[in-house]
Amino acid sequence: MIKIIATSDWHLGNLFHGNDRLPEHTHFLNWLLDQINTHQPDALLVAGDVFDNGNPSAAAQSAYYEFLADATQACPQMQVVITAGNHDSASRLEAPRPMLTRHKVEIRGTVHRKWKQSTENEEGYWQVDYDDLLIPVSNSDGEQVVVLAVPYLRSDVVQNANYSQGVNIFLHTITDRARELYPGQTLVMMAHMYAKGADIAKSDYSEKIVIGGQEEVNMEGWTDHPDYLTCGHIHKRQHIWNTDWARYSGSVLPMSFAEKDYTHGIDLVTFEVGRHPKVEQIVYEPQHKLVVLPDDDAELSPAKLKTLIKKALPDRLHEKPDDDYSYVVLKVKMDRANNDDIRELEDLMNTKNAVLCKIQKIIPQTDVSTIVGSRQMKSLDDILNRDPMETLKEAYLIKHGTDMNVDQTALLADLLSGIKNESND
User: Fold this and answer.
1) Phi-psi region for residue 317, left (φ > 0), alpha (ψ -120 to 50) or beta?
2) How much is the pLDDT for 309?
3) Phi, psi of 203 (to 5 degrees)
4) What was the pLDDT predicted at 376?
5) Cβ neighbours around 403 below 10 Å, total
6) How many secondary structure helices (H) and strands (E) does the chain include?
7) DSSP string, 144-201
8) How far is CA 295 from the centre of its chain?
9) Which residues pair with 176 in a beta bridge?
10) Quick check: 229 and 247 in contact, CB under 8 A?
């Protein structure tokens, strides 16, 4: 039996609404170290987006290397395999590879090529070095699986007009190569991509998704696939669409308020000869919860929102929030709120064991049919013959929920008069 811990999307160095999350990531890494000590896995797979950007801070890199040092010491027989995601600098991540390999830490940031010499009458050519991405993992009993360590495939690697097709060709080819070199062995692929049908947040999603689905990979119909695929990039833990052998492990922390209800953790995957892989999620509770007040579609006035804040959030015991504070978004109805109301909400939040990330201003939707003097436009003549002042007043009322004041109306009248005079000249 071989045990593997699969994880991805750490995003070390992330700032959450301007707040440094390094203490949160340290909290997770310490928890992960405890899980490694407890389960003594044969391998730890990290499928991309180790860092939040290609130029991580010194503090983020220090936390990363300190974890690797502690993990390899806590579990000396464990093989660590780390691949680059789309947030990572592939070359920077792979730079310490020669040194880390000596400590059973394999880094695959980039896809390397090797020169293949053709016949005497033909020129040579560069070929992807698939063998470099194949990493055997063994346990103390000599049982073995082969890890297919595929980093995020950028367009210069895929080199195909259809990105999905190009990625599929790459994944199929490396799988065929693994079966050629390691016949009969269990194959475990790790990748970082946006698979077709993946469930992402409807809004405020934090994954870098290319508009139009240009990087969406359709894996449907792949029959000769690896035994298991653990994937990074999508932050919600889930099966990859229409498969029972491929899964996103999910991010270790919520990366936006749209992810506040996601379950976070790591996957413990067990491989036994002749059996399907057994997958168990080990749930991790992030250090700080994400709270939205109100947590439904209610539109609260500033006064009612203050009452809710006092009831829902604990008081701050010290000048700064304690270690278990929450990140908070406030949704306030703005039809009658002013700057003083907003300032009072901010002052109240400063007395709570919480960090205010933003105040979301909810502008009530105006029913156009109830506006006095409004009328439906039934023809082009209706639009052309309508008084522009009437149209602009209604537009202002719809957007702001209140009528223009006298000064605004006078200013707009002068503007329209000036436009009319210019058109007559």
Assistant:
1) alpha
2) 96
3) -145, 160
4) 54
5) 13
6) 11, 21
7) EEEEEE-----HHHH--SSHHHHHHHHHHHHHHHHHHHSTT-EEEEEEE-EETT----
8) 22
9) none
10) yes
C-alpha–C-alpha distance, residues 156 and 335, integer Å: 51
| Apex 287 CA angle, 285 and 292, nearest 5 | 90
Compute the Cα dihedral for 48, 49, 54, 58 and give only its sign.
negative
For the chain (425 residues), the mean pLDDT of every run of 10, in chain order, is 97 96 98 97 98 96 98 96 96 96 96 80 80 96 95 87 91 97 96 92 72 77 94 96 92 96 97 89 97 92 94 94 95 80 95 95 62 50 68 75 79 80 65
CB 83 within 8 A of CB 51: no
What DSSP string describes 3-52? EEEEE----BT-EETTEE-HHHHHHHHHHHHHHHHHH--SEEEEES--BS
> What was the pLDDT predicted at 242?
83
Backbone angles phi, psi at 140, to 5 degrees: -70, -20
**CA-to-CA separations, 47 to 88, 248, 302, 418, in angstroms, rounded:** 11, 9, 44, 62
Report whether 53 contacts 92 (CB < 8 A).
no
Rounded Cα gap, residues 282 and 44, in angstroms: 14
CATH code that applies to domain 2-284: 3.60.21.10
Stated pTM of the model = 0.83
Residues contacting 281, CB < 8 A, separation 6+:
237, 263, 265, 266, 267, 268
Whether the Cβ atoms of residue 25 and residue 59 lie closer than 8 Å to each other: no
Tally of CB atoms within 10 A around 359: 20
Assigned token pair, 57: 């801070």
As a whole number of angstroms, the distance between CA 347 and CA 331 comes to 16
Helix orientation angle between 388-400 and 406-424, rounded to the nearest 10 degrees: 140
Q: Which two tokens stand for residue 107?
A: 């880094």
Q: Which pLDDT score, from 0 to 100, does residue 401 have? A: 63
CA atoms within a 13 Å half-sphere pointing along the CA-CB vector of 337 = 24
